[in-house]
Each structure stands twice: as structure tokens, then as C-alpha cells.
Amino acid sequence: MKAVVIDGFGGVDQLHMQNVDNPEVGRGEVLVRVCATSVNPVDLKIRNGSAAKRMGVELPAILGRDLAGEVVRAAEGVVGFAEGQRFMAMANGTYAELTTAKADVLAPIPDKLSFEQAAALPLVLLTGAQLIERAIKVEAGWTVLVLGAAGSVGRSAVHVALKHGAKVIAGVRASQVKEAQFLGPEQADGDRADRFQVIATDDPKQFEKLHDLDAVADTVGGPTAARALKALKPCGVFGTVVEPPPDAAQHNVRVVRLVAQPDASRLYELADEVARGEFTIPIANTLPLDQVQEAHREAESHPSGKIVLKAA
Ligand SMILES: NC(=O)c1ccc[n+]([C@@H]2O[C@H](COP(=O)([O-])OP(=O)(O)OC[C@H]3O[C@@H](n4cnc5c(N)ncnc54)[C@H](OP(=O)(O)O)[C@@H]3O)[C@@H](O)[C@H]2O)c1
Question: How far is CA 159 from CA 16, 104, 258, in A?
């Protein structure tokens, strides 16, 4: 099969489409023809080397965490996967024509979603949901500041927090405030619109007004996260999907760093909410897999949505 392989760490020229052996289907696994995948920040960080060591990446490596495709065959003893059925998953090695995934991480693709739409979803939906539900354990009535709310993980976190009855403050760049106004009301009834507001986190005056937050859901880190820590109430929760600020432990708050895990049933529920128009994960561009270098270039240029890769 053809796959995008990296043999070294560095720029986009490390990404090469080449012939490799078909993956072997291990116990409990399903072989899937990849119809579409998408670029996530972690792919860029592995390719450029900044996250490779932390993640234990060995070369040569096939990147890709999002899978949307069709069943080719299931391992012996695995039931419920007929050839041609459409599934999605948070998986590994998806920049390829074929990949394998454990049967229990695969979720059916809602009928209304194309492979390209589905490919934008698994990692970011599960990460946003698990940040709110597993790391922060949000409760109805809490006030939660979501940092990076205009991003893909942030949108998922905003949606899930609103669903749980929280008041959500969407923290975005000043340039994203207009677009972010639609994150709440677009998806919501009147009640939810009342529980939603947007602030520009690069405007110190807006930040200074925040205090006594129950929780921060951080997807950006750095100085913005460090400022947000100070706006938490005593014993509040700072949940993050990136590095927490270095002095986080010195604050009287609970700091939780989340590493997202596959969860097929939650993925299906969230993807179905996307299919029903409750919220969106925008797609900025779709390119064939053999244009992966261009896809990474675009993903690095702060697009206003995901870059999807479809089978070439
Ligand atoms: N721990 C895990 O398991 C896990 C899983 C998935 C993702 N992640 C990490 O989560 C992060 C977000 O991922 P993503 O897919 O959501 O990326 P994304 O779609 O690029 O979203 C990030 C958003 O944050 C915005 N942003 C950056 N700095 C900001 C700041 N100081 N204030 C306000 N907004 C800011 C970005 O705007 P610009 O584009 O203008 O910079 C962008 O809209 C990445 O670092 C990714 O590696 C972790």
C-alpha cells in the first residue's frame, strides 16, 4: 500500500508518500481502508520533532490520528464489521491507504456525514469532551473559561460544557471574537445563549475582569494559561490538553493534564451532534493524501478550520 512516511524530523519535506507493506491485522483488530484523515497539531509536532521524544515515536513512522474509512476485514473472532461498512476512530498511522484499529475504538459514521466531514472529528471531539468530562468533571451552573475556544478542541469543549449546563466564557484571540459569537447561540436555545459569552484573551482589560471561575479548560498554554490560572476561585480546576504553566502547582487549584483516549460510543454521540447541526468543526481545506506537504504547510499557517486529507 501507499503511505506517508517520515524517516527524520524536520520540515514538510520529511513527508514522503511511498510503498510500504500492508499492516498486519492483529488480535481484536479491524483492517480499514482509509477514505479520509485530517491534520492535527500533534502531527506537526511529531514531524518537526518537538513532541516525538515525549510520545516515544520511532522512525520510520506513519503519522495520523483520525480515521474515516471502510472495513476491509476483521480479525478472526471479531464480529459486527462487514466489508464496506463506514467507521471512524481516533487511531494511529492513518496517513495511509490502509490501517488497523482495535475493534472497540471504531464508531459508525453517522449517515449524514461524508468521509471527509467525519475525518475532521475523532481526535478533537474526544479531546474537548474528555477535557470537560474527565479532567474538569464539570457540573451544571459552573463558570468555565475555555481557552482557544475558536479552535477545534476548544469548540468541542464549549459545546460539551454547555450541554452539561455550565456557563461558558469562550476565550479567543481578538481577531476571532466575531466568529466565536456563533459558537454558543448558533447551537443553542435561548437558555444556552444566556450562559455563553466571548472574551478576547489578548485584551488584558477583559482578562482582569475575570475572577472566581470554577474551571479553566485550556487548549493554548503559555502566558494566556498562566493569566487564566489567577482567575480561578480557590480549589477551582485547571484542566489542560497542553503543558500546564510551570508554577501551576503553587496555586491553590486542582491541575489536571488530559491525554485523550479513544472512546467509540462517546465519539458516535458527539459526531451525531455534529451531523444534527448542534455544533461544527470547520474544515478549511481538503487535499488528496499525496499533497500532504501542502496540507502541513496550510495547517501551520493558522487556518480557520481543519485540513482534511482524502484518499488520493
Ligand atoms: N492532550 C491531548 O490528548 C491533545 C489532543 C488533541 C490536541 N491537543 C493539543 O491541543 C491544542 C489545540 O488543538 P486544536 O486541534 O484545537 O488546534 P487548533 O484548531 O489550531 O486550535 C487552537 C486555537 O487556539 C487559538 N489560540 C492560540 N493561542 C491562543 C491564545 N493565546 N489565546 C486565544 N486563542 C489562542 C488558535 O488561534 P490561531 O490559529 O490564530 O493561533 C486556534 O484557534 C494543540 O496544542 C494540540 O496539540 C492535545
Answer: 37, 25, 18
